[in-house]
Amino acid sequence: MSRPSCLLVAVPLVLAAACGDKVNSVAGIATVNGAIVRFANATDTPINVTNAGVIVDTAIVFGAQSVCLSVSVTPTNGLVFTNVSNGTTLVFAPSFTVGGKFTVIAFSDASGAIRFATLNSEFTPTSGHAGLRMFNAVSSIPSATVLINSVSIDGAAAFGSTNQFRSITSGTATVAFENDDGTVLFLDDGTITFTAGQSQTIVLGPPAPVIIGFRAFLVNGC
């Protein structure tokens, strides 16, 4: 697979809030006939999370994720996201189903407005494997692929969307992101360890303010 002679600066994978009791525990407000939801932030705007009128997580920054939340599927009694910087409520139109498991990712469009993607997280990896898909949160990249040990994982992801989950060999693997035909390397993330039985979404994010180089982080399924 071809590689460019001039690469963008790589920024290591962000692992904040991706371990410990935030992996699969369920917290927040218990609901009857609700959905299980995890929120992750791919913007540089800290975000507060309110569930059924109660603040359940505060100032979630880029690369961080909430605990798994038991959420009502009724829009008027569910999740509310607030911009910590100015206190405004962010526009969010949930599309949860009863009994489902979802990942909600905040990302910025080309104008800088914060948008949300609601992703179905129901996936069971092949026995002994990990599950992985990619979310493209970079408005300047129309589509991108993730490479695990130099092999593309299930096609490209357009901006604001994911490719499909795929079972991958668990353990340590090299991770990189490039364009569809392999001529531009967006980010070489080095080696990452994937856990058998765990399904994750790997997010390609934009550079930090005044810093060159894309960033990436993992979001654990609930």
Report on the architecture of this protein.
It is a single chain. By secondary structure, the protein is mainly beta. It has one domain (about 20-220). It is built from no helices and 17 strands. The strands form four sheets. Strands 1-5-2-7-8 form a five-stranded mixed beta sheet, with no helix packed on it. Strands 10, 11, 12, 14 and 15 form a five-stranded antiparallel beta sheet that branches. The protein has a four-stranded mixed beta sheet with strand order 13-9-16-17, with no helix packed on it. Strand 7 (about 100-110) and strand 8 (about 115-120) form a beta hairpin. It is globular, with a radius of gyration of 17 Å. The relative contact order is 0.22. The model is unreliable at about 1-10 and about 15-25 (pLDDT under 50).
Order of helices and strands: EEEEEEEEEEEEEEEEE
- Measured on Cα atoms, how large is the radius of gyration? 17 Å
Biggest beta-sheet profile: 5 strands, mixed
- Average per-residue pLDDT, rounded, comes to 87
Lateral strand order in the biggest sheet: 1-5-2-7-8
Q: Helical element count? A: 0
What share of residues are in beta strands? 35-45%
